[in-house]
Design brief:
Layout: H1 4-26, H2 28-49, H3 54-78, H4 80-103, H5 118-139, H6 151-178, H7 194-198, H8 201-218
Helix pairs in contact: 1-2, 2-3, 3-4, 3-8, 4-5, 4-6, 5-6, 6-8
């Protein structure tokens, strides 16, 4: 029997995923408009978590701005195929962690986020790796990065993205715990706020951008 929380998650995802994919595929100013709305909501959620902490608020505001800038840049200039690959790995990192953690349970990972377990971490890596490889096999032909034939490189890439996504999740969980909040908001039934939903993505995008920056400077055509 599916519990009410999972039902809400599923119904929210049925709406959220197609809408997000539509704007991602559209790209250009349509995508920027969509991201701008999410940016405003996440900034509001961040400010709610950091009341009376002005320096932290400002730092978070700049980080979110850089994260969203990186997201736009990766989508517009690195290409749709690689961008969707990043999103796919992040999403299945969350899904793997959620279902492995719920079904297998086991020892808790950290006090920062009591629901996080070691089984969830393993599930995050395994499921993101599985679906990352499936994505590359069937949809990765248009990205030169994803056409890399060295399996060690591809596996390392997917696991690194998953790791950063999980660390981002823990960081947001830490600030929620400090603010004594269960969720960053309530705009997404079953998920909480937008920061709850994209906590891993907002860390993956800027780190990916910074890792690709030397290539972008020297040879942009390599990754188009």
């Amino acid at each position: 029997m599916i519990n009410k929380e999972l039902q809400k998650r599923i119904f929210s995802s049925i709406f959220l995923i197609p809408v997000s994919i539509f704007f991602i595929i559209q790209g250009s100013y349509t995508f920027i408009f969509f991201l701008s709305l999410i940016f405003l909501v996440t900034v509001s959620e961040w400010f709610k978590m950091t009341k009376n902490k002005d320096l932290l608020r400002i730092f978070g505001l700049f980080f979110l701005f850089f994260s969203f800038f990186s997201t736009v840049y990766l989508r517009q200039y690195i290409g749709l195929n690689f961008f969707l690959f990043l999103i796919t790995v992040c999403i299945f990192t969350d899904i793997g962690g959620y279902f492995f953690g719920k079904t297998i349970k086991g020892p808790r990972l950290t006090k920062v986020s009591p629901k996080k377990t070691y089984s969830g971490v393993i599930g995050s890596f395994l499921i993101s790796l599985l679906f990352g490889l499936i994505y590359i096999k069937y949809l990765g032909q248009k990205s030169r990065i994803l056409l890399e034939t060295d399996p060690i490189f591809i596996i390392s890439l997917i696991l690194s993205i998953s790791l950063v996504s999980q660390i981002g999740d823990l960081i947001i969980s830490y600030f929620k715990r400090k603010a004594k909040l269960k969720d960053t908001g309530n705009i997404l039934p079953g998920h909480g706020g937008f920061l709850d939903r994209i906590d891993g993505i907002i860390f993956v995008m800027p780190i990916t951008y910074l890792c690709l920056l030397p290539i972008l400077i020297n040879k942009l055509n390599l990754i188009k």
